[in-house]
Design a protein that fits this description.
Length: about 300
């Protein structure tokens, strides 16, 4: 029996353009900063490679990589119903960018376009995968808008292939080394206990975000197959168009204090260190290095970005 003191709201769909006014200027940067949401819907890890990647006369919206098998993932998005133009662009990018996974996002799909995606999954080599993903924006009463991704079309054997790939990846990595890698964050927490309250991000929670409220940015620290690293990014919901100009203005001071230059706009002021995951001593040394770098980055952004805010 329902508790009479509990009230329920009604989930209402909102037009996507109410959340993002412009596809290239608003939605694409937001999606690039929130790939973990799409990753959860697809069931595969995604690491951003680039935005607006040129291919002839056109630019692919987002290019990502699946770190589990290093495959290239092309993400083409639109804020209107699916159309022939975007279908043609998807096919063009597929060849020009050597992508093996294609994700087409739209608020609504025409049946002929869903049929086309279905046909591609049925008639192309098994190494290729095509997804049609419906973009929804929902709200209950006056709650914040919430984005949802609904997979409408995917390869028929996708779930089985995911399980097969996961088993292959697990078997290709030394069990002992993998276990030690999983212990990295607990080892790091012994040096920097605040990591326990940091936001977990990325596939499998392999990334930790340290918000620096005074500067309006996040120190993003990650663990990969090859090592550990960190860089500066905007807070959730603040894309590169907001954060990057601030970082560019403070670049000279940040580089002088941190060492790395601004570099790739997707990974500003990136610093990394290789780790031998089979060597416990090297893992401990890497944890110490990352904790020291985190502290250095926090101090630097508070000094240079906070001063910029007050200027």
């Amino acid at each position: 029996m329902t508790d009479p003191s509990v009230s329920f709201g009604t989930l209402v769909d909102i037009e996507a353009r109410s959340a993002w006014g412009h596809e290239a200027h608003d939605f694409t940067p937001w999606l690039a900063d929130n790939l973990d949401r799409l990753s959860d819907a697809l069931g595969i890890p995604l690491e951003l490679t680039g935005r607006e990647v040129r291919n002839g006369r056109y630019s692919a919206d987002i290019l990502a990589t699946n770190p589990a098998d290093s495959s290239v993932v092309l993400i083409e998005n639109q804020l209107e119903a699916s159309d022939h133009t975007h279908l043609g662009q998807v096919m063009t990018y597929l060849a020009g960018l050597d992508a093996h996974v294609v994700v087409w996002l739209a608020p609504n799909f025409r049946e002929e376009h869903l049929s086309a995606v279905r046909w591609l999954n049925q008639h192309t080599d098994e190494t290729f995968s095509f997804f049609a993903v419906k973009l929804r924006v929902v709200q209950i009463a006056d709650s914040p808008l919430a984005p949802l991704f609904e997979v409408l079309e995917k390869p028929n054997s996708w779930d089985k292939r995911l399980q097969s790939k996961a088993r292959a990846v697990r078997s290709s990595v030394s069990g002992e080394a993998a276990e030690r890698r999983e212990l990295f964050w607990p080892a790091y927490a012994e040096i920097d206990p605040r990591v326990e309250s940091d936001l977990k991000a990325g596939a499998g929670g392999g990334t930790r975000w340290r918000p620096v409220r005074e500067a309006g940015v996040v120190i993003s620290r990650y663990v990969s197959d090859y090592g550990v690293g960190l860089f500066i990014r905007g807070e959730r919901g603040k894309g590169g168009e907001i954060t990057l100009p601030r970082l560019e203005a403070a670049a000279a001071g940040l580089t002088a204090e941190l060492g790395p230059e601004l570099g790739d706009a997707n990974f500003p002021f990136l610093a990394n260190r290789q780790v031998d995951w089979s060597d416990p001593a090297d893992i401990e040394a890497a944890a110490t290095w990352l904790a020291q770098q985190t502290n250095k980055y926090e101090v630097a952004v508070q000094r240079h970005l906070a001063l910029e805010e007050q200027a």
